[in-house]
Design brief:
Blueprint lengths: L12 E2 L3 H8 L17 H23 L8 H7 L13 H44 L8 H4 L5 E9 L3 H7 L4 E6 L4 E9 L3 H10 L15 H54 L8 E2 L1
Antiparallel strand pairs: 1-5, 2-4, 3-4
Helix pairs in contact: 2-4, 2-8, 4-8
Length: 289
């Protein structure tokens, strides 16, 4: 088999015609432009490059979110064989090529983007309810409406979750106030502290010294710890089920779209790379080299 003879050629032409020349030269399989950047860019290429970069970024984000490897691993090739599907493009103009890729991208990415967005929203909600469940967990046995307790005008009343071993010391520190303990388990207890409004600052200061803060339940949940905890448990189970269903759909979709997504990724990257090289060809303000 013979070897192709490589030649280095310098082409000088009006800068406004450089995009057409590059499009024609790109039809040659062995055409490789040498980078010789200039401070003068081609506005035509600048606009196309922005479109190509956005297209590439959109595809790249979806591929990363789906955890799709850009190259087939050795083991996967041995087990499943090398990928057979390929996409051929006949490019007459770089602008039309990008427009075609944008159309394909819009159709191909619509479903995975929607599923990924839904999955992200479910994970966010699941994290919020799990955090609320953890925060309420120790107080889940309390059947008390916290909002009613905090509506008192003359008295200050608050409920805290503390280490059982600290109760005696807390009672001594607030000896002139009402401190009512309720054992939750071997390690934790709840205490209701009642005093005047003037005592509120002292109460909070003493409890902070034990690294303890009032029970806080998100406002969109019932303010009864027991009911709120049950609501969180139920919602977490529902969201976990939805999350598992979405994951299955995404995995199934990933398998069916894999060849097309990789083809679209490579095509968009090629368009972006070509435009990054050719947008500032060397030369003067009016002529490109």
């Amino acid at each position: 088999m013979g070897q192709a003879k490589l030649l280095k050629t310098t082409l000088i032409l009006p800068r406004v015609e450089s995009h057409e020349a590059v499009s024609k030269l790109a039809e040659l399989e062995w055409f490789h432009p040498l980078q010789n950047p200039s401070e003068h860019s081609n506005p035509y290429f600048d606009d196309l490059l922005l479109n190509a970069q956005k297209l590439y970024q959109d595809i790249d984000e979806v591929i990363r979110a789906l955890s799709i490897p850009l190259e087939t691993g050795v083991m996967a090739t041995l087990v499943k064989g090398a990928p057979q599907e390929k996409t051929d493009y006949k490019i007459n103009d770089i602008q039309n090529f990008i427009v075609e890729l944008e159309k394909k991208s819009k159709l191909l990415l619509e479903e995975p983007k929607s599923l990924l967005k839904t999955q992200l929203q479910i994970e966010k909600e699941l994290e919020e309810f799990r955090n609320a469940q953890d925060a309420i967990g120790s107080a889940s046995k309390l059947k008390m409406e916290l909002s009613e307790l905090r509506r008192l005008n003359t008295f200050f009343a608050e409920i805290f979750i503390v280490n059982s071993k600290d109760i005696k010391e807390i009672q001594n520190s607030l000896s002139e106030l009402i401190v009512y303990p309720f054992k939750l388990n071997d390690d934790k207890s709840s205490i209701i502290v009642i005093g005047s409004q003037e005592d509120s600052e002292k109460i909070m200061k003493v409890l902070r010294s034990f690294n303890v803060h009032p029970i806080q339940i998100p406002p969109d949940l019932p303010q009864n710890p027991s009911i709120a905890f049950d609501r969180c448990q139920k919602t977490c189970k529902e969201l976990e089920k939805k999350s598992a269903e979405i994951v299955k759909k995404i995995e199934k979709l990933k398998i069916s779209l894999l060849p097309k997504l990789l083809s679209l990724y490579e095509s968009s990257k090629l368009a972006k790379d070509i435009l990054e090289v050719t947008r500032k060809p060397g030369g003067t303000k009016n002529f490109a080299v």
